[in-house]
Structures are given as structure tokens and as C-alpha cells.
Amino acid sequence: MSLPNNHEVHIYKKNGSQWVKAHELKEHNGHITGIDCAPKSDRIVTCGADRNAYVWGQKDGVWKPTLVILRINCAATFVKWSPLENKFAVGSGA
Predict the structure, then answer these.
(1) 9 contact partners, CB below 8 Å, separation of at least 6
(2) Among its keywords, does the record have Nucleus (predicted)?
């Protein structure tokens, strides 16, 4: 995964000795400031300057976002899954 300093997440896969972009996750309206992976449940959570978080799940090879409204006044700056991957915490500048 990579964050190209904008509103996208790029997911790469290995193809021989090359890394090839497999997916682009685009849902945020501002820069993405935090990302975390949940390997057991195959989900990704992102947060950003738009004060929202998205939980991304893969279905039939396509990543689908679920909006989580955070009700914060400043940009979300950090996100981390819990050890059980059933909830996450978000930090902000407020």
C-alpha cells in the first residue's frame, strides 16, 4: 500500500520481480492522514482531513468503502484497529 499525499490509497501486488498497482481506493475528499490494516478480517481503515473514516472491505475482488462519520471538528490524523479488529480508534487535532 502507498499513500501518494492526496485523497487516494494505492494497493500493489507482486508480479514476478515487479510491483504492479492493483487497486486505487478513492473516497475521501481531503488528504488521507491515517491508515491501518486488519489482516485477520481483510479490512483497511482510513481517516483524513475531511474528518471522516472509511472501512474498506473486499468483495469479489473489489474494495468497497463504508463511511464512518466521526463527529469531530478537526481533521482525523491517526487511526488504529483494536487487537480483535472489531473496532478502531481515531486521533484528531481537537
Answers:
(1) 1, 2, 3, 24, 25, 32, 35, 44, 46, 56
(2) yes
Coil, helix or strand at residue 9: strand
Contact by Cβ (8 Å): 68, 54: yes
pTM metric for this prediction: 0.91
Burial 57-87 (b: 16+ CB within 10 A, else e): eeeeeebebeebeeebeebbeebebeeebee
- Residue 21, CB half-sphere, CA atoms under 13 Å: how many? 9
pLDDT at res. 91: 96
- pLDDT surpasses 80 at 94: no
